[in-house]
Design goal:
This protein is mainly beta and 338 residues long. It has a domain at 88-273: Golgi alpha-mannosidase II, domain 4 (Beta-galactosidase, Chain A, domain 5). The protein has six helices and 18 strands. The strands form three sheets. Strands 3, 4, 5, 6, 7, 8, 9, 10, 11, 12, 13, 14, 15 and 16 form a 14-stranded antiparallel β-sheet that branches. It has a two-stranded antiparallel sheet with strand order 1-2. The chain has a two-stranded antiparallel sheet with strand order 17-18. Strand 3 and strand 4 form a beta hairpin. The N and C termini lie far apart (66 Å). The model is unreliable at 1-23 and 51-58 (pLDDT under 50).
């Protein structure tokens, strides 16, 4: 057997240069962005690593990334975020659960699902925590069958979800971190909302019998309170088990807010029509003072056509505690399980 021993050694020595040789086509190309850069594709040796389970290889992910279908408008040209909290919206026809805190939002073939998570539960594998909600709203349209959910536009902590059936028939939702409202704009849709065990109430928190006409309607479901705000003259009525929303004019939008309690309906009504269109975070560091100042900027639009452009923005506690120039009309109240 001794004469056979050198053979494997010779084989390995000859093979190794072939395994690790790389052509120019295999190498990622750096793209300069400011003082940093990103690569056009992952390194080939990283693309072939085993996955977490260790059973199968990833294969050449550079080809997957290069040729992956992105769920964005057809005319969009440019980079897309690959690790943002809403990235599943780009990589899938229908999004995963998007936690904008306080709301959990998910785009599905049936419409837009909203929930109000308040508690955590340990998963079956005891490795992760799962958020739980006692209630759920489904925003959809009568006969509305969207083709997909697209990332329509985005900025630092904001994203808009466009769900088109045709160029004339669509629904667009705007969500963002710390925003208690989800804004839904529509075209060519008879809007409906499904909610389990609804108890309808007015801006004062008093019970309401449908149909009703106005700028808003509250609903309590399994202890969770939502405010549904709309243009003046909107009619709210039951259509089977769904809430039918009939607009009286050219404005066709609703804003759904997660309310701490029924009594907060009137306060949220002031801000509900004001939708953010763009968000930006900027930093200014002073070495002399040893101070970092963070500036949060929102560009907004009043869907009701009013001049008030103030938006209700929630903050993570350590940001809220050190904020300057913020004068809330109400005490800090944590709607989100952190």
């Amino acid at each position: 057997m001794k004469p056979l021993l050198p053979l494997p050694l010779v084989f390995l020595v000859n093979l190794l240069p072939c395994l690790y040789a790389a052509t120019d086509d295999d190498l990622p190309t750096p793209v300069q962005v400011g003082k940093g850069s990103y690569a056009t594709q992952p390194p080939r040796d990283q693309a072939a690593r085993p996955d977490v389970g260790g059973k199968e290889g990833w294969g050449d992910l550079s080809q997957v990334f290069t040729h992956m279908k992105l769920w964005v408008p057809d005319d969009y040209k440019g980079p897309v975020p690959s690790t943002d909290w809403w990235t599943s919206l780009v990589t899938k026809q229908w999004s995963g659960q998007l936690w904008s805190y306080p709301a959990m939002v998910q785009a599905e073939p049936t419409g837009l699902v909203m929930s109000y998570p308040k508690t955590w539960k340990l998963s079956e594998n005891k490795r992760t925590m799962i958020m739980q909600s006692a209630s759920k709203l489904l925003v959809h349209g009568k006969g509305f069958v969207p083709e997909a959910a697209l990332a329509d536009s985005w900025s630092d902590w904001l994203v808009s979800i466009r769900m088109p059936q045709s160029p004339q028939t669509w629904m667009k939702a705007t969500i963002g971190h710390g925003l208690p409202c989800t804004w839904i704009e529509t075209s060519g849709i008879d809007l409906r909302i499904d909610v389990e065990k609804p108890n309808w109430f007015s801006a004062t928190g008093a019970a309401v019998t449908l149909p009703a006409t106005g700028t808003g309607l509250g609903v309590e479901s399994n202890g969770d309170c939502y405010g549904i705000f709309a243009p003046a003259g909107t009619r709210f009525a039951m259509d089977g088990t769904s809430l039918a929303i009939q607009f009286s004019g050219a404005q066709k939008w609703i804003s759904i807010a997660l309310l701490p309690a029924r009594r907060d309906m009137a306060l949220y009504a002031k801000y509900a029509p004001v939708v953010p269109r763009s968000t930006k975070v900027s930093w200014d560091y002073s070495p002399e003072k040893g101070e970092l100042v963070t500036t949060w900027t929102l560009q907004t639009e009043n869907l009701a056509g009013g001049s008030d452009l103030d938006v209700m923005q929630g903050w993570i506690p350590h940001h809220y505690d050190t904020a300057h120039g913020v004068k809330p009309e109400f005490a800090f109240n944590d709607l989100t399980p952190m």
